[in-house]
Amino acid sequence: MIVSDSTSLPLPRGAGRPIDQQTLDDLRRIVGGQHVLTTDGDVEPYSRDATPLFRARPGVVVLPASTGEVSAVLRMASERGIPVTPRGAGSNLAAATIPEHGGIVLVLTRMTTIKEISPDELLAVVEAGVTTAELADSAAALGLLYAPDPGSRTVSTVAGNVAMCAGGLRGLKYGVTRNYVLGLEVVLPTGEVIRTGGRLWKDVAGYDLTRLLTGSEGTLGVITEVTVALLPMPAVARTGVAYFGSLADAGRAVAGVIHDGLVPATLEFLDNRCINAVEDFAKLGLDRDAGALLLFGDDGTAESVERSLSLMAATCERTGARGVTMAKDIAESEALLTARRCSLPALARLAPVTMLEDATVPRPRLAEMVDRIDAIAARHNVVVATFGHAGDGNLHPTIVFDPADGDVRHRAEAAFGEVFDTAIEMGGTITGEHGVGAAKRPYLQRRLGADQMALLRRLKAAFDPAGILNPGKLGS
């Protein structure tokens, strides 16, 4: 079949159709009857993920326990043209695991074995359903650091992090998930099982399929096993907090920190609305009157950490901080990090719907982008709370609202569209870490252009000739 570059790929022939009895029987033979869910009560939780306002009922939910079972399910689905939506914990914020066209939701949370942690090779091998926190804690017990640190770390799965290329609080110093993926075991939509990369930090044989599959959002293959790089655990980690009159002022402090040649392990910000929501939620003693909070921290040797934190504190004071506090111990540092991690759940308590987006701009334009977001919010008559990763220019503007309040949803969507356009105009992007999924699909071509979109579709067709895997996502 020749696929036109100017249009979306066709949907598989079984899109939107009920799952027939023969297919259900075959699925039960592959994974066991108790791991094939069909009743409304059983499948309803898999009709949504952490992205608000997106929902679609799957025809069936299947929970395999091995790579062989995943392979058998995908081979059958390709032969019969049944859509398959891969899923981990469903913690993503881009509607990437919503089964828009029905079919099979393939849930990998039964695959939970940490197969190996090797201090000698500084790597770990884990199955798809291991959570980020489980991997990090197991590595820490051996004096090793798994650096990726997404806010959803306690529930998100390692393979899900790889599929979405998750970011996190350590992104500035340590990078994001893709920087730690050494190798993958992947089941292609046709049922073939391939291994990309491996146990080596250096390997340039052939195309870098590991990088291509990382961040592919379940559209090219199903990741069943991941080999990740680990690091020696830093001896010391400390955190401080600086309060400013505005987020724009905090953004200027960030520019000062980087200009001074520092690369902090943590450089995060919250605006006043986030500060108050977090304080109501967690009662950490934050300054409610501050316009913004800048959380800064570093790890390494005791001497290097003391030096870098002193320099960061001085920079914050020089750029107008109204107060700087240093955590006295590990517990206090963890409490400050909790303030940043609980921003989303704290804001979610304020109204029935929480729309959290992410956009990224070049770091020197962070303060300007914050000002532009405030102007956009005023223009569309919505209230925006903003927090995010100040060190890498990744912002998380968030709107909470009651859907019964007139046309507020449409105003919020229009505001976010303008935020994305502004980020692109400033040399940034529509998503730094959350992904595209279904939520940001309308904006993807604005970011990539028609020619690159056509190339994405050709790649998709090469991996997935029947078009079954997460159809409609990533512009396909």
What does this entry look like structurally?
This protein is of the alpha+beta class and 476 residues long. It has four domains: 21-109, Uridine Diphospho-n-acetylenolpyruvylglucosamine Reductase, domain 2, CATH 3.30.43.10; 114-232, Uridine Diphospho-n-acetylenolpyruvylglucosamine Reductase, domain 3 (2-Layer Sandwich), CATH 3.30.465; 236-343, Alpha-Beta Plaits, CATH 3.30.70.2190; 345-448, Alpha-Beta Plaits (2-Layer Sandwich), CATH 3.30.70.2740. It has helices at residues 21-31, 40-43, 67-80, 132-140, 158-164, 171-174, 209-213, 247-259, 272-282, 302-318, 330-341, 343-348, 366-380, 408-425, 441-448, 450-463, and strands at 36-37, 60-62, 84-87, 104-107, 114-118, 123-127, 144-145, 181-187, 193-197, 222-229, 231-232, 236-244, 266-271, 292-300, 323-326, 353-356, 359-360, 384-389, 394-401. The strands form four sheets. Strands 12, 13, 14, 15, 16, 17, 18 and 19 form an eight-stranded antiparallel β-sheet that branches.
Helix content: 25-40%
Shape annotation: globular
Derived from helix and strand composition plus strand pairing, the structural class reads alpha+beta
Number of helices: 16
Name the descriptors.
single chain, 476 residues, alpha+beta, Uridine Diphospho-n-acetylenolpyruvylglucosamine Reductase, domain 2, Uridine Diphospho-n-acetylenolpyruvylglucosamine Reductase, domain 3, Alpha-Beta Plaits, 4 domains, eight-stranded antiparallel β-sheet, five-stranded antiparallel β-sheet, disordered N terminus
